[in-house]
Amino acid sequence: MKTALSVDGIRIAVEVYIPETGTAPFPSVIVCHGIPSGRPVQGGDPGYRPLARKFAEAGLLTVLFNFRGCGESGGNIDLGGWPRDLSAVLDLLEGREDVDAKKISLLGFSGGAAVSCITAASRRVAAVALAACPAEFTFLFPREGLTEMIARAREIGAIRDREFPEDPWKWLEGFYGIRPEYYIEKINAPVLIIHGTADDVVPVSHAHLLYSLAAEPKELVLLEGAGHRLRQETAAVEAALNWLLQLNLL
Predict the structure, then answer these.
(1) Are strands 10-17 and 61-65 parallel, antiparallel or unpaired?
(2) What is the distance between the alpha carbons of residues 184 and 190, in angstroms, rounded to a whole number?
(3) Long-range contacts of 221-224 (CB under 8 A, 24+ apart)
(4) How far is residue 74 CA from its own chain's centroid?
(5) Fold that domain 2-246 belongs to in CATH
(6) What's the rounded Cα separation, in Å, for the pair 241 and 192?
(7) Interatomic CA distance for residues 175 and 152, integer angstroms
(8) How far apart are CA 153 and CA 149, in angstroms?
(9) 26-41: pLDDT as tens digits
(10) pTM above 0.85?
(11) Which parts of the chain sit beneath pLDDT 50?
């Protein structure tokens, strides 16, 4: 089922996958994608849809959505606004009669994992799984590369408006403000950290740092030889799903 939200006047595209078996209200999981590296595929990123169907078949009402500036959502990419997008999706689920509001979990990948971490530190969630999560973003987006960063975002369609960003430095600070290393200890829910040992985008050292800072209960899963795109790794998807099931969310 497709729907949409308005956040800061921006249309946020949402897809809801409802389990075909079981009885409502269902436990649920919100899947958060990462920062796009290429032009969006028409109709959204199909790479997450098999994952959503798999989780729904296991009994979890599963939500996919596009952050602002990505996929079918409107606006321009602005990481500082991504937590508000996710918070609005959380509000949507909490208001649904077929969702158990006490059993909403987050599953984030890369930049989406970082935003999931920030959100889970201030909102009630049942659990949060962080896949290929950076501890911070300064190493990925150095200040001296700002011009190239904006040009690349325009090239791939993540910046769509000619006058955006009005203040490039403030826009970059929005990325720098998403620092899981500062927030993860505030999460009052089980935390799963999944990372590939061969991740050439976010070094595995970030996973070790975040795990050391997270409060119990927590779990670290390192996938030998896996790279950054963990949504394409069966072992990563299975680890997240099995972990959620073991938490007795069902």
Answers:
(1) antiparallel
(2) 11
(3) 221/192, 221/193, 221/194, 221/195, 222/195, 222/196, 222/197, 223/194, 223/195, 223/196, 223/197, 224/197
(4) 17
(5) Rossmann fold (3.40.50)
(6) 11
(7) 15
(8) 6
(9) 999 999 999 998 754 5
(10) yes
(11) 40, 44-45
